[in-house]
């Protein structure tokens, strides 16, 4: 290739690259409203964004991968935690963990009810933005050392699987199918419940839940179930049928657990979840 040919090649390649860049830019702008869920930006969302910035939430938390990475990523938080839970948490975070053991993890911001509602509206808008699968998984906080997940607990213990985990034994095993549902149903049970003993997340640990259910049915139970399987089924489909007074998992007699599983799951799927939970030791 002589100098003239090299010059023409460089000019042509630059022109093609520029055209491709312009085409991609125009296409991105064409899709911005859809990708960013712009149609759902309400005055409450805008106010919530201002609350987010005014309280420097990004100094600890991240959204869309931007932030301090000190506290959990909140990009999809409203899909993992319902409004009642988030409202109660922001009113007084210290009720959700033992400060004497774990220090002050989340400061009490003394937000008003409107600020809390607007902040949740903002986070809900964030959670519905098409972020192409980012973050790949949420960062979860448990009742153990921050940050904790079942995987972290297993790694700390030097094991390859979380405590109380059971292997998937076959396609026809109800408990195995229930384990898959536990991790795949939306919202995922595993997003709020650990199966590691003593590791409480947004919901209590489910390790040994069958034995605890037996004790509960014998004393202090307010629901209608008469056996462990019935209690587990009731807990999945009617989570407010029995709540523990004073526990951090409910407010005003209403459980923070979504009450939608009874409609979203078939009776067979509920039975599979019950079989899996009954198998946890």
Question: Mind sketching the topology for me?
Answer:
Layout: H1 3-35, H2 43-54, E1 62-63, E2 66-67, H3 77-80, H4 83-91, H5 99-102, H6 113-127, H7 150-156, H8 174-184, H9 209-218, H10 228-237, E3 250-251, E4 254-255, H11 261-264, H12 267-279
Antiparallel strand pairs: 1-2, 3-4
Helix pairs in contact: 2-6, 4-6, 8-12, 9-10, 10-12
Contiguous low-pLDDT stretches (5 residues minimum) are 141-170
Number of strands: 4
Q: What name goes with the CATH superfamily of the largest domain?
A: Cytochrome c-like domain
Give the terminus-to-terminus CA distance.
Answer: 74 Å
Number of domains: 2
CATH class of the largest domain: Mainly Alpha
With strands numbered from the N-terminus, the spatial order across the biggest sheet is 1-2
Looking at the structure, what is the overall shape? elongated
What summary fits the major beta sheet?
A: 2 strands, antiparallel
Per the CATH scheme, the topology name of the largest domain is Cytochrome Bc1 Complex, Chain D, domain 2
Structural classification? mainly alpha
Quickly count the helices: 12
Strand percentage: under 5%
Query: Rg from C-alpha positions?
Result: 24 Å
What is the N-to-C succession of helices and strands? HHEEHHHHHHHHEEHH
* CATH second-level architecture of the largest domain: Orthogonal Bundle
Helix content: 40-55%
Keywords: Electron transport, Heme, Iron, Metal-binding, Signal, Transport
Organism: Pseudoduganella flava
Protein name: C-type cytochrome
GO molecular function: electron transfer activity; heme binding; metal ion binding
């Amino acid at each position: 290739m002589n100098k003239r040919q090299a010059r023409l090649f460089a000019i042509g390649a630059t022109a093609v690259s520029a055209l491709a860049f312009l085409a991609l830019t125009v296409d991105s702008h064409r899709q911005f409203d859809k990708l960013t869920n712009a149609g759902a930006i309400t005055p409450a969302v805008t106010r919530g964004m201002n609350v987010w910035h005014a309280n420097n939430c990004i100094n600890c938390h991240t959204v869309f991968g931007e932030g301090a990475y000190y506290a959990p990523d909140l990009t999809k938080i409203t899909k993992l935690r319902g409004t009642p839970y988030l409202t109660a948490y922001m009113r007084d975070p210290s009720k959700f963990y033992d400060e004497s053991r774990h220090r002050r993890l989340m400061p009490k911001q003394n937000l008003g009810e409107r600020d809390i509602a607007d902040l949740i509206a903002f986070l809900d808008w964030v959670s519905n933005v098409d972020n192409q699968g980012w973050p790949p998984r949420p960062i979860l906080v448990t009742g153990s050392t921050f940050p904790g997940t079942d995987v972290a607990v297993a790694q700390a213990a030097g094991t390859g699987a979380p405590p109380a985990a059971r292997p998937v034994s076959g396609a026809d095993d109800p408990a195995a199918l229930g384990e898959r549902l536990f991790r795949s149903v939306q919202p995922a049970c595993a997003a709020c419940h650990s199966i590691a003993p003593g590791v409480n997340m947004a919901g209590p640990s489910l390790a040994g839940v069958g034995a605890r259910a037996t004790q509960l049915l014998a004393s202090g139970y307010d629901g209608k179930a008469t056996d462990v399987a019935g209690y587990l089924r009731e807990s999945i489909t009617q989570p407010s049928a029995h709540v523990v007074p004073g526990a951090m998992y409910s407010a005003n007699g209403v459980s923070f657990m979504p009450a939608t599983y009874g409609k979203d799951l078939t009776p067979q799927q509920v039975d599979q979840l019950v079989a899996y939970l009954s198998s946890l030791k």
